[in-house]
């Protein structure tokens, strides 16, 4: 008991310190974010942009899909370019072309000799890098040569986002529909926002030689090379990783004992569980999981195909109905929604199972929440369609349309609706768990951790409500990653660890005391890096250098527990083999083992590949990011959601014979398909882009010139085998769930005992 109390005290201290530091960093981000000028003028006094132009331009960008169509500061889609990096390089070239026309009477600086080009490259940095923002007047002043280049690049973008025939091939390469922004004034204001994003990435901070985005993106022409602190903190991150692995290894050697119970039950304890009306009502949540999963896969195939046919699908003008930015929006959102729905359903199922208590009107609450989830999905997606198709208008877009923030794209009204739904879920789970919390049983610590993670899931989504329509981009990114990293990757995982521990203790396979110690320790290890590890997403989003130091150190610690996932996999395997009746839970256990594998590969190897500062400087927004994203999001959280769902289905349909062939097909097809998707397409494509970024600059790795090469097309087509196999597995899983309710095969009843 004393050891348990020490672990609880350690967890409380860890969370207090971690969130204090995280909030302090938020204050520094707010204080040191790139300024938004009131006016941008040239040295002759000509007005180029106003603050209103920049802010309305951001609204326009959000309404067309925002980060789902290209990216800003490296966060977003991968087919179109990073608009800030693209603008910056085009502007630098336009300035030099202007000099070449005036001084050498040639059309392009590329026609000059090597020595002159080198001199121009040095000279253009003296134009772009000095900070000419005057805080007292809120004015940025640029010289006339730069102003002319800005008008030239702006003209290119205004044509690109319109329907000018000359740029139709480029729109197709970027998977943009013709007339992406219908209004000419809005197109001009969009260029103001893109220019500001580019200006922030090259302009040096006051009293510094590093830009607001830590010299990101890499582009030697404009002087954007990795600063020395990236090297320093990358080395330290590796040292922290090695030290953390060593300490955790020492802890396992000293304290890790055999947690399996000495006396195992002869029958399945959960088979005797009384299924309450509210528990039975959770079945419909798993139907929704299956439906959203299939739609997500379909949208993923459409999104991937846009990379080879930018506006069509086998001759059909798909972009006129479902543009790329919309299919990608729905694909990424559905990934979070179906996984979250599986976990929400699990919470509603497991709470009465833990306490044995069915609160009054609990079933009604489960039904109501299910209806709310359907309304949110349909309403939010409809609003996003109207926004991207430019049928809504900017005045309503923020609340009912498309916010443009990857993974947090819902309009604000729908965000509030979802938050209220999560609070309802929290109250339903909490009121069912409350009797178990009051009992003071031996498993109270696990139940308490489960309850606290439920509270965190319910309330931490509120971080997505912390920004407004005109909040600074750096602050939006700060809060957005609270949702994506802490809510999705953090507290859901703590919830899952507690649920799995409870299931194994309830099955009588684990000793409650040792399981409690293991769960609390695992939570401490995970959150020690997980909370401040959020900052590795913010290295290059206009944040101070303290973000790089803290993010590098603690994101390395995130990987530490993953070095020992082999223990977790073996532990799950032992649970599955502990007693003959555990064969009933073979496939949920297999999915838990898959979680361990993808934790190591997707979250661990591919995560640490991109997370150190120097690595991410070149890799942010390249296809190495979705390599990590796909293998971690589905491989870990998706597989975990499926495993938890299958545990619930075993309880909901205890007398139904499971089709082992369907589950075997689903398990192996999804794992093999995900592996092929990563190894045949995402990883090699990302490595080719990395080489291009190192040799030519980040802008080139994201350019149409690079991305439209035949080799790139071939790699994209190589997704077909993996996607097909994966889809077969998904269909097998959905068909399995369908047959549990439709024409199921029942287990034969045991014969009644004979009278002696």
UniProtKB/TrEMBL annotation:
Q: What keywords is this UniProt entry annotated with?
A: Membrane, Transmembrane, Transmembrane helix
Q: Where are the transmembrane segments?
A: 230-250, 285-306, 335-354, 366-387, 413-434, 446-467, 479-505, 517-540, 546-567, 587-610, 630-649, 669-690, 724-742
Q: Which InterPro entries match?
A: Cyt_c_oxase-like_su1_sf, Cyt_C_Oxase_1, NorB_cytochrome_c-like
Q: Which GO terms describe its cellular component?
A: membrane
Question: Which Gene3D superfamilies did the record assign?
Answer: Cytochrome c oxidase-like, subunit I domain (1.20.210.10)
Task: Write down the superkingdom of origin.
Answer: Bacteria
What sequence ranges are listed for the domain Nitric oxide reductase subunit B cytochrome c-like? Answer: 37-218
Annotated Pfam families: COX1, NorB_cytochrome_c-like
Q: Which GO terms describe its biological process?
A: aerobic respiration
Keyword Membrane (UniProt):
yes
Q: Which GO terms describe its molecular function?
A: cytochrome-c oxidase activity; heme binding
**Name listed for the protein in its UniProt record:** Nitric oxide reductase, NorZ apoprotein
- Native source species: Pseudoxanthomonas indica
